[in-house]
Amino acid sequence: MHLRKAKLMFFWVRYPSSAVLKMYFPDIKFNKNNTAQLVKWFSNFREFYYIQMEKYARQAISEGLKAAEDLHVAGDSELYRVLNLHYNRNNHIEVPPNFRYVVEQTLREFYRAIQGGKDAEQSWKKSIYKVISRLDDPVPEYFKSPNFLEQLE
């Protein structure tokens, strides 16, 4: 249940602090181990997310797209569908409108970096991560409820 809740939270926050996690998982008695586990989950969520972004950015380049601004992510696009399926498998929630914007910006950042040859550098993704971390949104208050998933079903 906590894993599903964390995956849904990813639509708003990609880089939650431990303080944010503690606020939204009030039923957990936090210690070093379970805090590390939650942080690791978000790390894994980001890894999947960024793998998809790189894949679709490279695909756009191979298809001859000339400018990052020409990349658009619609609600019915394959990338958006893949992400929604991964984080919101049973469509428990309606994806927040800003998530599409975040996905589009992330895709464009990857496109620009790859197109500019930055991917030849060892830590080329770090600058992208910094941009994306600033796009986090506040998680809705209803996520604080310990039985929030039951309310959705």
UniProtKB/TrEMBL annotation:
Gene Ontology terms describing biological process: cell development; glial cell differentiation
Secretion signal, residue range per the UniProt entry: none
Keywords: Developmental protein, DNA-binding, Homeobox, Nucleus, Transcription, Transcription regulation
Protein's cellular compartments: Nucleus
Chain segments annotated as coiled-coil in the UniProt record: none
Recorded GO CC terms: nucleus
A Pfam family the protein falls into: HPD
Record-linked PROSITE patterns: HOMEO_PROSPERO (PS51818)
Top-rank taxon, per record: Eukaryota
Domain Prospero: 1-153
InterPro entries the UniProt entry points to: Homeo_prospero_dom (IPR023082), Homeo_prospero_dom_sf (IPR037131), Homeodomain-like_sf (IPR009057), Prospero_homeodomain (IPR039350)
SUPFAM superfamilies the UniProt entry points to: Homeodomain-like (SSF46689)
GO MF term set: DNA-binding transcription factor activity, RNA polymerase II-specific; RNA polymerase II cis-regulatory region sequence-specific DNA binding
UniProt-recorded name of the protein: Homeobox protein prospero
